[in-house]
Amino acid sequence: MHDGSVKDILDLWDDQGSKFNVVTWKRRNGGRNKHGRGRGHDKAINRFLVRNIVEQAAVLRYARGLCHVLPKLYAKVHHCVSWNAIHAHIVSVRSCENRRNCELPQHFRPSLLLDDHLPEVVLRLLHQLLPVPEFQLCAP
Predict the structure, then answer these.
(1) Phi and psi for 117 in degrees, rounded to 5?
(2) Domain boundaries, the chain
(3) Which of 11, 15, 49, 60 could serve as a FRET partner for 24 with CA atoms 20 to 30 Å apart?
(4) Which CATH architecture has domain 6-32+43-97?
């Protein structure tokens, strides 16, 4: 009868005729306080990916004559923070204090769109691009 010692386990043979390799260890937890938790994982970055099934060049060529809307491809993508999301520039590296900030980043808006005189600016640009003699600026 085997009492479970290391010598008895080394004497056992498996079905293929080779011995089991038994390695002894010094500590029950391997020096780590992670019972049942494995290795640490990052919080995933979730994004919805919406793309056209048909490529843009084909849409410009053939879809003008179609009367129905072309289908799209919808996929939810999970990115690992440590490699995929940072390397693909989906998220950026932030400091400890800035990581607590959950506000969305401000999008770039040119000063042209913030101007109150947007129709006049657009008309002037059109007048420069399309110099037609009959075209006149109308005062609102």
Answers:
(1) -100, 45
(2) 6-32+43-97
(3) 15
(4) 2-Layer Sandwich (3.30)
